[in-house]
Amino acid sequence: MHTADRPAPAAVPTQHGQPDTTEAQAEFDARIAAEGRIEPRDWMPEAYRKTLIRQIGQHAHSEIIGMQPEGNWITRAPSLKRKSILMAKVQDEAGHGLYLYSAAETLGIDRDTMTEQLIEGTARYSSIFNYPTPTWADMGAIGWLVDGAAICNQVPLCRASYGPYARAMVRICKEESFHQRQGFEILYELSHGTEAQKAMAQDAVDRWWWPSLMMFGPPDADSPNSAQSMAWKIKRFSNDELRQRFVDMTVPQSEVLGLTLPDPDLKWNEDRGHYDFGEIDWTEFKEVLKGRGPCNHLRIANRKAAHDNGAWVREAASAYAAKQSRRTADAYQEAS
Amino acid sequence: MTNPTTASGTENTTTGTPAGSTPTGGWPLWEVFIRSNRGLSHVHAGSLHAADARMALANARDLYTRRSEGVSLWVVPSEQITASEPDSKDSYFEPAADKVYRHPTFYTRAEGVPHL
Questions:
Q1: ipTM of the complex
Q2: Where is region (Disordered) located (chain B) (predicted)?
């Protein structure tokens, strides 16, 4: 890895004058075509930089907001074991958010700006985290379905053309598989428990199935930026391809759980070699994205409160650091 | 060498705001290096924000070594790293390419001679 993961100044005059954009673009294109990686100080088209800042930022915000639906159950986890696991998982989500913020910062946006965009509602995060988690079984459904869908999306991102993003994704994917397996286990225990427990597991799956399918984004025909992202090799597969992959993986798992997926049209299609599934309610997806989901307001209000309530800690730590460095400087002066 | 530039956040192209003095009092940026095992070098893992070195180290431990990924950590203020220019046609590293005699494969007389 490079030690200098900071962007180069917009246009550094070199010995040879201003860099030639056409030549730089050709080099960039050749590197992408050859499956090379773009690193922070390389020249890159502004649109590539902006797309990445938006995508990595949204991804980071999703991890950070994603702590809330599960954080909701930490105090009420059914056993000490489940509580420890849930805390480790929520801590991982925070970590994932920070890896991604760190990757986004290599593109020239700073952390404070991203935090501001999130709490002021100008940056998006995954629509999935605007759904409530009323029962313990939701912890299982989130791990199994939401993290399962996230893994489908994220594994190909480990080969994204932007180096710092791809490296962050490698780290994240290694940690995500624990998340999905622990979710599956929660649902398995419930679905093999009492009737009431099984009903609770089924109810959670009924509520999370469709929103999980929406996580892959709008259908290809309605996803105008996808083609460019794929040409840049940020995205490797289309939304619909990834969604199909997720459905194909998940149906057999649901059979092991003994739970039904709430879609009467879900059935194996011998000709296609894939499962067919029903129409997704894109109106709901758009409503949630526009901020009219069940928990949008709550999620942002919580994030803003955490940020505001932490202000004095940030200020105190800065003041302490400034005082310590002054003292060190004074001591140095006295000694010399 | 063409203008060496630091790896610092002061080169921020979006806001032009130097690290450590962002409007909301953001903490400076640190680069994290991890030695994954004894016998191996420290390798760059990523970056984080912290008010001072001690906090940077604690944050690095919490962020980058939650699954025993390391036995030793370094944290370095990002602005203290001096970096070479990104590679280009008139590469800074070019002198190495025209000195092929620095590689053992340049010498062919030894071909087939044992232990050489």
A1: 0.86
A2: 1-25
